[in-house]
Design a protein that fits this description.
The chain is of the alpha+beta class. 22% of the residues lie in helices and 34% in strands. Strand 7 and strand 8 (71-73) form a beta hairpin. Helix 1 (77-85) crosses helix 2 (108-117) and helix 5 runs parallel beside helix 6.
């Protein structure tokens, strides 16, 4: 399949989270082409979203965790593997808890709901990640290599530290082989690991209904093994899920020895680094192509401030000065602008080949403009505005090089030296982010 794919209709499943033990309802929704896969926490204010991207991986202990700000989603690999295994490029995974349900410890139940919902092709073409040369890594006992290949293949060897239950398996990963050879493999652990996991507040929802336990030479399970090599096949299932965090399907042959989530994610980072290298070189030696006409100059009005005047009010200096000019101040309202250029220091790492202004910096720009407004209103001298809190934060659209960020702030209340304001950032008249921010004035 060379075209992108999504679900034909929503697919739902309920259960408990493996590590949290919380009850969770999950619905996988169709999504537009080129939007990728993302998680949406419907249990939190504003229904924040986290893109299923390697850049958002925050932890890899016994599972893969994604985080964006204070919002987290744990144990994402099994549902991501189900989507990737079937070649689904675009989807929104809604959750009302902090991790997807563990089901039976494999991807089988997720495959069932995806099959019931159906898969539809989208008109946009699919882009692949294809390594140009072998990539190797060694993380602890894990060794992984990916070689260029016309298809996606995995060859894997699994064993514990003592060499028990050493298993080997190899397969090309297609929707048919995924469903038949990998999707039903359940997660497992060794008996001596359980005490450590419990002490670290993990596997609160774990049981023999959703995991296999290996005790010495015995295999504890509620049913016979589903494959002769179920342990190594589950490791391969995890590889499919973790490598899907690249955001595109892979054309390459992965060879793994004793893989784990840390190694899987590090390999994904190395693949992304390699395939992004030519684009970074092109950006270095050639001017970027014009993406849109230059914006019209924005008019200034009463209260306008140049960058020189701004720096008399704000202690921030480049690269953390995120306001270029104040256009106007009208009572309890203020409008500032930030010209977003390719020279911003955060673009090389956020993200290589896909420059996007971090949402947290848009939030910081709002706080700086709000601080100027409060300092003007109370006519404070030798004061600095300190950012205290942000509520109802929403990021609606990406901000990219060439955009002019218009920052509109309305002071909602001010008591003493504490202020609360509503902030909105716009590009070309469209809201890209918004938040309620609280800040305090202190002596400089």
């Amino acid at each position: 399949m060379l075209n992108q794919q999504t679900l034909n209709r929503p697919a739902s499943f309920s259960g408990i989270g493996l590590h949290s033990g919380n009850r969770v309802n999950m619905t996988i929704l169709p999504a537009p082409a080129n939007s990728g896969v993302r998680f949406r926490r419907v249990d939190l204010d504003g229904k924040p979203e986290i893109e299923a991207r390697i850049e958002n991986v925050s932890e890899t202990t016994r599972s893969t965790t994604l985080a964006k700000g204070n919002v987290k989603v744990h144990t994402v690999e099994h549902v991501l593997a189900a989507l990737a295994g079937y070649g689904i490029d675009n989807a929104i995974i809604e959750l009302d808890a902090n991790e997807p349900p563990i089901a039976d410890g494999s991807s089988r139940e997720f495959c069932k709901i995806i099959q019931a919902a159906g898969i539809v092709a989208q008109p946009e073409k699919r882009e692949f990640f294809a390594p140009t040369e072998p990539i190797e890594l060694c993380v602890g006992e894990t060794m992984m290599t990916i070689f260029p290949d016309e298809n996606f293949k995995i060859t894997c060897t699994s064993a514990d530290k003592g060499g028990r239950f050493t298993q080997f398996y190899s397969t090309e990963v297609t929707p048919k082989t995924w469903e038949k050879e990998l999707a039903h493999a359940r997660t497992f652990c060794f008996y001596e690991e359980i005490e450590h996991l419990i002490k670290n507040n993990l596997i609160k929802g774990g049981s023999l209904a959703n995991a296999i336990v290996i005790r010495e030479d015995a295999v504890l399970t509620t049913e016979p093994l589903r494959y002769p090599e179920e342990f190594v096949r589950h490791k391969m299932l995890d590889i499919v899920g973790d490598l899907s965090l690249l955001g595109r399907p892979i054309r390459g042959h992965v060879i793994a020895v004793r893989p784990g989530h840390a190694g899987n994610c590090e390999l994904a980072r190395k693949i992304l680094e390699q395939v992004s290298r030519p684009l970074r070189a092109a950006q270095t030696f050639a001017p970027p192509p014009p993406t849109k006409p230059a914006p019209e100059p924005l008019p200034a009005a009463d209260g306008a401030m140049s960058i020189e005047e701004l720096m008399k009010f704000l202690p921030h200096r480049p690269p953390m000065l995120l306001v270029d000019r104040i256009l106007k101040i009208d009572g309890n309202k203020i409008v500032g602008i930030k010209n977003v250029t390719m020279n911003e220091p955060f673009f090389p790492g956020h993200f290589p080949g896909h420059p996007i202004m971090p949402g947290v910096l848009q939030l910081e720009a709002m706080a700086q403009v709000a601080g100027v407004l409060l300092l003007k209103i109370i006519k404070a001298a030798n004061q600095v505005a300190y950012f205290m809190a942000a509520d109802n934060v929403k990021w609606r659209k990406p901000v990219v090089p060439g955009d002019v960020l218009v920052i509109e702030i309305e002071l909602l209340k001010a008591r003493g030296k504490i202020g609360k304001a509503q902030g909105i950032c716009k590009v070309d008249g469209e809201i890209v982010s918004e938040a309620e921010i609280t800040f305090m004035l202190r002596d400089a």
